[in-house]
Design goal:
heterodimer; A: 313 residues; mainly alpha; B: Cytochrome-c3 Hydrogenase, chain B; 3-stranded antiparallel β-sheet; 49% helix; 12% strand
Chain lengths: 313, 412
């Protein structure tokens, strides 16, 4: 019981992932600023933002559905933190692992997007509703390439468990190289999931103010912002576990250190990508995902199946 | 609540895409704009009327504040009209210095626009880069005039500050850096995929429509309308400079971007020519305090397009009438045309592509009904009920709020 509570609240639960999420946000913002020739925020800026928001008043719009409106940030944060428990952090084994946890992680990572949709829709503000409709439209575009890409390495490893995949790729390290194309596609799809440039269409500031979050303020907004940070870390951890599973069998300390490096590497790649592009329109984003990313993801899947066949024979 | 498939969303008066208060009321069907209503008038400052109350010299400073970005354009346009009425011969050196400041101002305005355009399509890196480089030209302007904006350089009969020989190499080195950076931006504009995707085919304005709707400046030139006051009706020193008028036949926002970066390169060329051929002589002639009766119309190619000032003098030290036609007034008509059946996502960049300056454009016109004796005056209760009715027609009912806060009671 005490260990379970420790796991949920301290490590790898809310406290660790909260702090790590803020660290990732800081690195993302600092790198983004440096690439833009700016100074960027000090290290405590994400924490300061969080404290400031928590101290502010929660305002629920009169027309909004108060229950859904206030519940959604909590659901979003819970969903992402739960997904985190199934990802191997310090070795080849995650805190909870079972055959099929990969699908569960992908499913749990869809929850925040659904909460953005519901929270925005029930805000009853025109900007939020357009943002909500956009985030659900975008979901259908990036989700398929992301799923296909993440499932391809699983097919090669012949397991649906992230922990077993890590074991497999650590004993066959060269096989990880076959999935590089998938890593690139998954990285771009993750930009869509995290709603970052060029796919920040649901919260395009110059068009629809803050999209889904237009009506959110105070603690509720703080929770949503925290959820976005955590989502970034969970997404990066998933990519690290699936596509960069190397060196996790050297013991807890080395494994955990490598895990941190890998996640921050993915976060840095995300920052670079969001620096060098302009925001696409929703129609361009969808046609890009279906025309190029989904077929490329299928090819990755096919390549993994062929390699598996050759290896077996 | 409106039907989900048929939204009416207010872009403005306060909105992150807009730098000034104005309201674009947009009816959306899904992501498509079906109709749009532009409403200006949040920023009326009564400058034209205020000019009639002040002397010509005081007006110089007031006119300069019509626009924060193209302040020199308005000041020069006004002073040219006054000098024409007074029959003043401005020295060559003063003409050259005016042209120098005008071109430096164009450089700073176009770099600013490039950054704003980047921000509107979510490309903040471009904003940060261009605004950093823009500091170079701002520093040059501060060195020459003492101010980063609102230079206060013009006076009736010439300019107020001379360009010294020590300043020339500093300007040239700043221009060299800017030219190199602009070449890099041209490369970005032509090679960056997402930027081109977002700008090509957006805000299409055909050549005929541009002529028909009276577009001016880079907006018109990007629709292959070969029109530039600097060449067609040369003022200041433009008659003696060699430069190309940049036009483009893309007819869209992408074309407008290419025209503006192309004009930047021409401006660098012109600044070099001016500094090389800067004639000797006085920088100002003495102007009379009272301007003889007469009228004049002055045209000027501001960074945003043709600026027109009309001045009527009545022989006193104050003008009888000053009329300013800012370039945005000519261009604002084309925005609604360009946005028809386009995506909501294109709205910010299409509005930004004309490089709008709404506070320069706001004018008040009072329309009085003929034969109506009460026209012009309205009692407070009538005005109050009129405003409530007006908003009710727009679909906004304040009756509930009024009851809540007892506004009616407070008025009695």
């Amino acid at each position: 019981m005490a260990i379970a509570l420790f796991n949920i609240l301290i490590f790898p639960g809310f406290l660790f992932i909260g702090v790590f999420g803020m660290l990732a946000e800081y690195i993302d913002r600092k790198l983004y600023a440096m690439l833009q020739n700016r100074v960027g925020p000090p290290w405590y800026q994400p924490l300061a933002d969080f404290i400031k928001l928590v101290a502010k008043e929660d305002i629920v719009p009169e027309q909004a559905d108060a229950r859904v409106f206030t519940l959604m940030p909590v659901v979003a944060l819970t969903g992402t933190v739960t997904a985190f428990f199934c990802i191997p952090l310090w070795g080849t084994k995650a805190l909870f692992s079972f055959n099929g946890d990969l699908v569960v992680v992908l499913y749990l990572m869809t929850i925040p997007t659904m909460t953005y949709f519901l929270g925005g829709w029930y805000s009853r503000s025109v900007f939020s509703m357009i943002g909500a409709a956009r985030s659900i439209t975008q979901l259908f575009a990036y989700e398929i390439p992301l799923f296909l890409c993440v499932l391809a390495p699983a097919m090669l490893a012949n397991t649906w468990s992230l922990s077993e995949m890590t074991v497999y790729y650590n004993s066959h390290p060269w096989f990880g190289l076959f999935n590089i194309a998938g890593f690139v596609i998954a990285l771009v799809a993750l930009l869509g999931k995290l709603e970052k440039v060029p796919f920040d269409i649901p919260e395009a500031e110059t068009e629809i103010v803050a999209g889904t979050f237009t009506e959110y303020s105070g603690r509720l907004l703080a929770l949503f912002r925290m959820c976005i940070d955590v989502e970034m870390v969970v997404g990066a951890s998933l990519l690290a576990a699936v596509f960069l599973p190397f060196g996790m069998h050297y013991g807890s300390a080395v494994g955990f250190g490598l895990y941190l490096v890998k996640v921050l590497f993915v976060v840095a790649l995300l920052s670079v990508l969001r620096t060098i592009f302009a925001r696409l329109r929703i129609d361009q984003m969808i046609s890009f995902c279906w025309k190029y990313m989904a077929p490329a993801a299928f090819l990755q899947l096919l390549a993994d199946l062929i390699i598996k066949g050759i290896h077996a024979s | 609540m409106p039907e989900p498939s048929n939204f009416r969303i207010p872009i403005g008066p306060q909105h992150p895409a807009l730098k000034e208060p104005e309201c674009f009321s947009i009816v959306l069907k899904g992501e498509k704009i079906t109709s749009m209503n532009v409403r200006l008038g949040y920023n009326h400052r009564g400058i034209e009327k205020a000019c009639e109350e002040r002397t010509y010299i005081q007006d110089m400073y007031l006119i300069e504040r019509v626009c924060g970005i193209c302040s020199h354009s308005h000041a020069t346009c006004f002073v040219q009209a006054v000098e024409e009425i007074a029959g003043l011969e401005v020295s060559k050196r003063a003409q050259y210095i005016r042209t120098l400041i005008a071109e430096l101002e164009r450089i700073h305005s176009h770099l600013l626009w490039l950054g704003v355009a980047g921000h509107e399509i979510g490309f903040d890196t471009l904003l940060m880069y261009t605004w950093r480089d823009r500091e170079g030209v701002m520093d040059v302007l501060a060195m020459l005039t003492g101010n980063r904006v609102n230079y206060g350089m013009n006076t009736i009969g010439g300019v107020r500050r001379d360009v010294t020989s020590e300043q020339i190499p500093q300007i040239l080195s700043a221009i060299d850096i800017l030219e190199e950076r602009t070449k890099y931006y041209i490369q970005i504009a032509t090679e960056e995929v997402t930027l081109r995707e977002r700008l090509s085919g957006v805000g299409v304005l055909s050549h005929d429509d541009a002529v028909h709707l009276g577009a001016v400046g880079p907006t018109a030139r990007a629709s292959a309308v070969d029109r530039d006051i600097r060449r067609d009706d040369p003022y200041a020193a433009y008659g003696e400079l060699s430069f190309k008028v940049i036009t483009d036949n893309h007819n869209d926002v992408y074309g407008r971007t290419l025209v503006r970066v192309g004009e930047l390169m021409e401006s660098y060329k012109m600044v070099r020519q001016i500094l090389k051929n800067l004639p000797e002589g006085p920088i100002a002639v003495k102007a009379p305090r009272k301007i003889p009766a007469g009228e004049a119309l002055s045209r000027y190619e501001a960074p945003r397009g043709e600026d027109v000032h009309y001045v009527k003098a009545n022989g006193t030290d104050k003008p009888e009438r000053v009329k300013i036609r800012a370039p945005t007034l000519a261009n604002v008509q084309v925005v609604a045309h360009m946005l028809k059946d386009r995506y909501l996502a294109d709205m910010p960049i299409v509005i930004a592509a004309i490089d709008p300056c709404f506070s320069c454009t706001d004018r008040a016109i009072s329309v009085r009904e003929q034969g109506n004796s009460t026209a012009g005056t309205m009692s407070w209760p009538t005005l109050h009920s009129y405003s409530i009715d007006w908003y009710r027609k727009q679909g906004i009912d304040f009756a509930e709020l009024n009851k809540k806060f007892k506004i009616r009671g407070a008025l009695k």
